[in-house]
């Protein structure tokens, strides 16, 4: 057995990248490959207990902002002490720092993994800084991976890369009418049209616009509810937008949930209005559950693996989105497991491919 070191941007929270990582971790042969994690900051993650129970280790380091020296030296020490042959970094342009340290520590296989199609940045300086790192990390990494073709084409400047799809445990998300009835009863939404969204509450996910869309839809159908699963830095802004539009009695803010596979069963439609995405795991999950999906045209077309997905522009008026929702919520849910598997998003198949990928790199 050999161990691989994964590096993530913060704690192993219930985010898209972290969920994708855990899907693979649960399904690889851990008698042959074990995964350890470097997490930045002191915050505990929702997946920490599961990681440890599966045999992984979690190394906590201060973020670069907190203590740059301890951040870099700490990672160097971890690499040296454990003699890793593979480091797999999941932070897009910020992969530059852990992969540079890993190179100095003598880690021979340094995998850069891109999970997005654009930089998350605070200002122009931050953007250009990340652009510089993006170009530099290509020279430091020995292997290039991406969640989708759109992400890889953007990040790697024409260099070849390996697709590691955001695969899911299809069986957990298949539509189940009994679960749907139970969840609807639990959250008191029987007889209502449930518009659902899952995502971190941050700028790229654009939930403010989603609230504005829902405001228009309520004018069409007063018997509706908006369910928002997730949390993050923009939560207060979203709450203020809900209050500004007098929607407090029509919106359920559920926070982060471990049982998303059950809660989404009650969705009549799934909405994603992101400014940009890599390939959103939750969109694959929603399709597996047979839910019609209305998403922004900034999301890669690769994510449309069934006929359930419709694209609209976020430059369109919220009223157009509302009218489209009205026409889509009548779609009957159906079994999409075959389509998900054929498109390469069944984790039972894709985890085996990832294991073969690691084995080949070790042999090389």
Automatic annotation (TrEMBL):
Organism for this UniProt entry: Candidatus Treponema excrementipullorum
Protein name per its UniProtKB record: Glycosyltransferase family 1 protein
One Pfam family cited in the UniProt record for this chain: Glycos_transf_1
One GO molecular-function entry: glycosyltransferase activity
Domain Glycosyl transferase family: 180-337
Entries under CDD domains matching the protein: GT4_CapH-like (cd03812)
Lineage summary: Bacteria, Pseudomonadati, Spirochaetota, Spirochaetia, Spirochaetales
Residues of the Glycosyltransferase subfamily 4-like N-terminal domain: 15-172
InterPro entries in the record: Glyco_trans_1, Glyco_trans_4-like_N, Glycosyltransferase_grp1
SUPFAM superfamilies xref list: UDP-Glycosyltransferase/glycogen phosphorylase
